[in-house]
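Q: Can I see a sequence and its folded structure?
A: Here is a first one.
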Amino acid sequence: MSLASWFRWNEPPNRISQRNPTEMVVETLMMELSWQMKQAEKQQRERENEYRKIKTGVDYGWLVSYPKHSYDISPGERLQLEDMCTKIHPSYCGPVILRFRQVVAEYEPEAQEVSRLFRSVLQEAAEKIKEEEEAKKLARQWNTKNRTSLSLTTFKSRSRISPFISDIKTISEDVERGTQPNRRVWSMPEFRNTK
């Protein structure tokens, strides 16, 4: 084994896990956009060839050479779409791709329309993520309120006067003990009829 190949063999592998998840989401979604645009171009060319074949009755498709990828989005639009992709949580990356493929299959767009569909799918996903985050926030607030009210209820129940553990003497206690009840003291003087 040569020294150069030994160094190559012992190089630390480039680990995907070292990359930022947001960057991976952006890259994955933009690759999907690019692939869908290529597919749309390919289908567009096939439709044009079919139309020519029907119109002329002859298939010249094998003579025509097309560029591999002729349509591309502008740099400004690319930056906007990449910025929108950063708002997509990694757990939503797969569902966004599936939804995008579903929309493309449904509409069969031309290459220049694919980025518009992609944008609408990203907006839809971002709104759904926002709604779910708000719902989680409300649930957390609700749980916090419930914990607070429960602790207040517990405190109130502890501070209640228990009738069985009371220093207040009742007639029933005296009867149970077999003793004579103490005379009641009236707060108001008794009014007697004096004749």
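Q: Show me another, different protein.
A: A second, unrelated one:
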Amino acid sequence: MTSFEEAETEETVTCLHMTFYHPCQEEKMMFRCLNFCKREQVRADDVAKFGRDSSVCHYNLMDTRVSRIQFALQFYRKLHSSEYCFEIKNLSKRTKLTVNQTELGYLNKIDLPWRCIICFGDYQILAEVQEGESVDYFETYLHLAEAPILQERSLPSLQPIPESGISSSIFLCQDKSPTEMDENEP
């Protein structure tokens, strides 16, 4: 047997990609303590905590509006399954945490979807799970977003669009102020 044949089978590692955004990042630098664009290993039995208390949290957010411990992520394996997942728990008594429209109060927890947006205050975090097989540890890979992850969605126009395909709302935008019209005028 060659050394190649005797080598241990290489395991793939579950990696949690997290992209962070806050509108005041450039001026307040609240993410300055996070290691961006560098994979970090976390033991499978450790809880990944996010917050402003550096003595408790590995992932520090430098903002007085963030709780000492804002939220935690726990890596686990589903019962009777080989599937690995993350569970997210809100540890803030002051701030609700939203995961894809699901609001979590203090100590509420849910399974983290494989792709989701986590929000609290003005913070937006896109979390994406890259599946792996390792049982000893997982990795985190943090990114910084320059633009909001959640874009403001404008409501669709309530005006009907004529068959010509040109909406009259296009022409309304040219005037700065709305004008009243009598509905009986031609």
